[in-house]
Amino acid sequence: MISIIIPTLNEQEYLPKLLDSIKSQDFSDYEIIVADAGSVDKTIEIAKNYGCIIVKGGLPAKARNSGAQIAKGDILLFLDSDSILSSYDFLSNSLDEFRKKNLGIAIFRLSPISRKIFDKISYWIWNRWIILVKNFFPHGAGAFLVKKSLHQSTGGFNESITFAEDQAYVATLSKNAKFDVIKKNPALISVRRFDKDGRIKTCIKYILADFHILFFGPVKSDIFKYKFGHYKNGNPKSKIPNPK
C-alpha cells in the first residue's frame, strides 16, 4: 500500500482537483491522509466526502510528519494540495520505476498549470537543475516518494526549518538511501505562489534558499518570510504556530 499525505489549510478550491486526479488512477492500493492545519472553509468536509483520513496538521513539516505517523503504507507519497497527478497511470508508473530502481526516495519533475511562457521556462529550468545536480545536491519540492522505513529511521521532516523544509528533507534522506528523479510522469503544480508573491521575487527566493542549504545548511531563521495559506484574498486564515 502507498500512503498519500497532503498538508492543507483552507484548500477548498484546490483539494478537489487533486483528489479527483488520485481517484481516477488505474492504481487503487492507497490511502489518502489529509493533515489539516485548522481550515475554516470546506476543506475538511471535502476530504471526508472523498474518504480521506484526517489528522491534525500545522506548518508543512509538522503536517507531513503527522500524516506519516499514522500511515499504513510502506511507501509514502507527499503531495502539495495545489498539485495534480498528470495522468491516470501516474501512481502505477511511478511506483514501478521506484521499485525497479530500488530507490529509497525519489522526486518528480514539476509542470506548471499555466500558459505563461515565464512559468513554463522557470519550471523547465528547475527540472533541468534538479536532474543536473542530483548526484551531489539531491533536492526537490512539491511531490516526492519515500520508503516509510527510511522516513522513520531519519526522523522525518525537521520541524525547526522555516523555509524549503522539503528540499532539506530530500537532501538528508538521500544520504541514507538511493535517490533519483522519476522520469515517466511529472506532477502538475499551480502557480498561485507566483501570482500572489510575484514571479521574479519567488524565483530569487528559491534560488537563494538552494544556495543557503548547499553552503550553510537548512533555513532555520525567518530570513525568507515564508507564508502558509495566504493565497486567496478574503480566504479565512487560521493561525499556525511557528516551529520550535
Structure write-up:
The chain is an alpha/beta fold. The longest helix has 18 residues, at 199-216. 41% of the residues are buried. An eight-stranded mixed sheet has the order 3-2-1-4-7-6-8-5, with helices on both faces. It is 38% helix and 20% strand. The protein has helices at residues 15-23, 43-49, 60-70, 90-100, 117-132, 148-153, 165-173, 192-197, 199-216; strands at 2-8, 30-36, 53-56, 75-79, 83-85, 105-112, 143-147, 179-189. The chain contains nine helices and eight strands. The protein has a single domain (2-216), classed as Spore Coat Polysaccharide Biosynthesis Protein SpsA, Chain A, CATH 3.90.550.10. The two termini are 33 Å apart. It is globular and about 45 Å long.
